[in-house]
Design goal:
Distance between the termini: 36 Å
Strand content: 5-15%
CATH topology of the largest domain: Beta-Lactamase
Radius of gyration: 29 Å
Largest sheet: 9 strands, mixed
Number of domains: 4
Helix content: 40-55%
Number of helices: 27
CATH class of the largest domain: Alpha Beta
CATH architecture of the largest domain: 2-Layer Sandwich
Number of strands: 23
Mean pLDDT: 82
Length: 755
């Protein structure tokens, strides 16, 4: 599996720059330069800016883009190295700040650029000498407006721009000069999409196709014929059983929550005498072994696919997968191997969680989903496994054939088709820099504090047991959110209490005394339990989800609560929180069920149950009731993703209204402030566990409001620690007050840290 490369986060990262430019249509270099400079000017607090890039033939610095200056001068103004303040910057590798440029001996007035009205000057090289790519210059009217400390910020940006410009140049050249063959002429140079799991990958295309009954009956092994020898079937069955047992053990080490999803079903089918005897009868009637296997499997696939129940239809995939294993294993000379996805980028119309487990058995490098959406559990699985994945609703993907060279940049949401060597080299260079930055960012201090020493606790959000070791390596102080739904989502019936309890106990033991917070089942919305028919609704985001579901079916809640309580015995740092609570009535109803389960477990084991119980803040209804909740809950955890969604009535999975999903909406920020303030007045711990909690723009905002616990996905821990360490408490409070004072979305956006 390809290593996931997550670039070192910053308020203005290379990945954001590329996304803002390439993904908004700036595939020509001029559009790219204009957009990058506009963002740089805002990021560095300048009133005007100019971008000079080196001409590779003459070595001159040529004006390529401006902000706040005369646009007509672009391409017409150039400086020799050492000429004017722009050329003079090449003699200052660490950057140049001038209080009043007009008084500097190297100043050269350029009338067509209209730069004389600005006094303060700051410039940095883009890239290192002697291979510098150019100069970024910034201007302000007030003399002495740029302080020396601003150079560090400008240099950090310029370092990223060096690779960004090289990458953009290669892409633009690729788009403009590509001359495809007649076969590939319908394919574009690149396809844009939406990132599900970040990362980068290169490889050849492998088109993932479902095999229906008709396809199975045209399998090459049937065309080749074969003997009607029942002993051959017996050997294939034994060979397949050994192979699946090995796969089970390999996957159990990676994703124990999902390992049994496929393999238990396969094992049961291999032991199903009726299923296997039908194959034996076909052989006895003269069919070749391959045909007997395929015909019986095809019959079951047709039967299952005709069901009105989704979970039954999904079982057709198990039949398909087992039949393919059996057909492959009829060749006794072949060695049993993992599925052949090594070195490939898988392209699929849609994927089930079971498909992800199948794909992950091989060394798949990336996934491109050619449809409009992805279920939450598929997204969760690929992110947890570190497989880069992109959703691209492009009809062009249907023309991509097996073996087509691909580059997947899931950081910016771009798939390159038949990329030339120049793009590949630039891509590899960028990955190398990202790896180095990721290694640097992974160096965590043992504890986290603001610049003036205020202690902040960083916890980890955990989806799978496989993520625990990574979280501990990154010095997570505990699990602030354990999402318990995966074992429910990846089965066709409720998981047994024994299965859940083993997972929960493993989590508690691996955290070795650190606090662990279990969120009870948060199914519904885009996380459907296929075996609960009532969940198939017209508007699932507003339907039977989360606590509404488990209170309607209390046996689901009771079963889970008992397993958590058993896993918590002997530990004094285990917490349970109820998601999507909308009223005190729901809270008390859930608490009564917990109390009853605790009494049951205590009677069963002879050991009293001691856990802290809290509520997730996700619904606007909680804002008005927060004081009442604070009187009864031991802690709050604010799930900002759903809080924003329900506060603004925006389905965050719907691309048509994506622009309305605004974490920086004034109503969202003020609602968060009211909840946090009420909790602090009651001395109730309150933490953030949604995506706003790792956003560098909002971390200081939360610190300013009094948040001292942040729970984020493990990969974001280094980023959050750096942001916390960069501010004082007073600065954070001033920043929070400034954001809260704004009445418009644009007003907040302009003041966001790093914008």
């Amino acid at each position: 599996m390809a290593k996931r490369l997550r670039p070192a986060p910053s308020s203005w990262s290379l990945e954001r720059g590329l996304a803002l430019s390439l993904l908004s249509g700036a595939t020509d270099l001029q559009g790219f330069h204009d957009k990058v400079l506009d963002r740089a000017q805002a990021h560095l607090g300048a009133e005007a800016a100019a971008l000079f890039l080196r001409d590779l033939e003459s070595g001159d610095l040529v004006l390529r883009a401006v902000c706040g200056l005369n646009r007509a001068a672009v391409e017409h103004v150039r400086f020799l190295p050492g000429e004017g303040l722009i050329g003079h910057t090449l003699n200052h590798p660490r950057g140049l700040v001038v209080a009043d440029q007009r008084q500097h001996p190297a100043y050269r007035p350029v009338e067509e650029l209209d730069v004389a009205k600005y006094a303060s000057f700051l410039a940095v090289m883009i890239g290192a000498a002697p291979e510098t790519a150019g100069v970024l210059s910034l201007y302000r009217k007030k003399a002495g407006a740029f302080k020396p400390a601003a150079i560090a910020k400008a240099r950090a940006l310029a370092h990223r721009l060096d690779v960004a410009f090289e990458f953009a140049a290669a892409v633009a050249s690729f788009v403009q000069t590509r001359t495809p063959s007649r076969k590939a002429r319908a394919l574009p140079a690149m396809i844009r999409g939406r990132t599900v799991s970040p990362g980068h990958a290169s490889g050849t295309a492998h088109v993932w196709k479902r095999m229906g009954a008709a396809d199975l009956l045209e399998h090459p092994r049937l065309i080749a014929g074969g003997a009607a020898d029942p002993a051959l079937l017996d050997r294939a069955l034994a060979r397949t059983a050994r192979q699946l047992d090995r796969f089970q053990k390999e996957m159990a080490a990676r994703i124990p929550e999902a390992a049994s999803l496929i393999f238990e079903a396969h094992a049961m089918m291999l032991q199903d005498n009726f299923f296997i005897d039908k194959m034996r009868r076909g052989i006895a009637q003269g069919s070749g072994v391959a045909r007997a296997v395929a015909e019986v499997a095809a019959e079951y696939i047709r039967l299952f696919e005709a069901s009105e129940h989704e979970y039954v239809r999904e079982k057709a995939r198990d039949i398909e997968d087992l039949a393919l294993h059996l057909l492959d294993n009829l060749d006794e000379a072949a060695q049993p191997t993992s599925p052949a996805h090594g070195g490939h980028i898988v392209i699929a119309r849609d994927l089930l969680p079971s498909d992800i487990v199948r794909i992950a058995q091989g060394d798949v490098r990336g996934i491109v989903l050619a449809s409009g959406g992805s279920t939450a559990h598929v997204s969760l699985l690929v992110r947890s496994l570190g497989i880069p994945m992109l959703i691209a609703s492009s009809p062009d993907l249907s023309y991509v054939e097996d073996g087509t060279p691909l580059l997947l940049d899931a950081a910016t949401g771009v798939l390159f088709i038949n990329p030339p060597a120049t793009v590949v080299r630039t891509f590899e260079k960028r990955n190398l820099l990202a790896e180095r930055a990721a290694d640097e960012s992974g160096r965590m201090r043992d504890s986290t504090s603001t610049r003036d020493g205020q202690r902040v606790h960083l916890m980890a959000n955990i989806n799978l047991l496989a993520e625990v070791e990574h979280a501990l390596q990154l010095k997570a102080e505990g699990v602030g959110l354990y999402r318990t739904e995966l074992p429910y989502l990846m089965r066709d019936s409720l998981p047994a209490e024994e299965d859940q309890q083993w997972i929960y106990q493993q989590l508690v033991q691996r955290m070795a005394g650190k606090p662990v917070t279990f969120r009870t089942l948060d199914a519904g919305g885009d996380k459907l339990l296929t075996y609960v028919e009532a969940m198939h609704e017209a508007n699932p985001a507003l339907g039977l989800r989360s606590m509404r579901l488990t209170l309607k079916y209390p046996e689901i809640l009771d079963r889970q609560l008992r397993t958590i309580l058993r896993a918590a015995q002997g530990h004094d740092n285990i917490r349970i929180m109820f998601p999507m609570i909308g009223s005190i009535d729901e809270w008390r109803q859930a608490r009564r069920r917990l109390d009853a389960c605790a009494a049951e477990v205590a009677a069963e084991t002879g050991v009293p149950c001691r856990v802290k119980v809290g509520a997730m803040v996700e619904l606007p209804a909680m804002i008005e009731l927060v004081e009442a909740f604070a009187a009864e809950a031991a802690f709050f955890s604010i799930g900002t993703n759903d809080f924003v969604q329900y506060m603004l009535a925006v389905d965050r999975t719907n691309e048509n209204v994506a622009d309305y999903y605004c974490p920086h909406h004034p109503a969202v920020l003020r609602g968060l402030q009211r909840v946090i303030a009420a909790a602090l007045r009651r001395n109730v711990e309150v933490s953030i566990c949604g995506e706003m909690g790792h956003d560098p723009r909002f971390v200081p905002f939360f610190l300013g409001l009094g948040i001292r616990v942040l729970s984020v996905d493990p990969d974001f821990l280094p980023q959050v620690q750096r942001v916390v360490a960069s501010v004082t408490l007073a600065e954070a409070q001033t920043y929070a007050a400034d954001l809260l004072a704004q009445e418009t979305i644009e007003g907040v956006r302009q003041r966001l840290r790093g914008e």
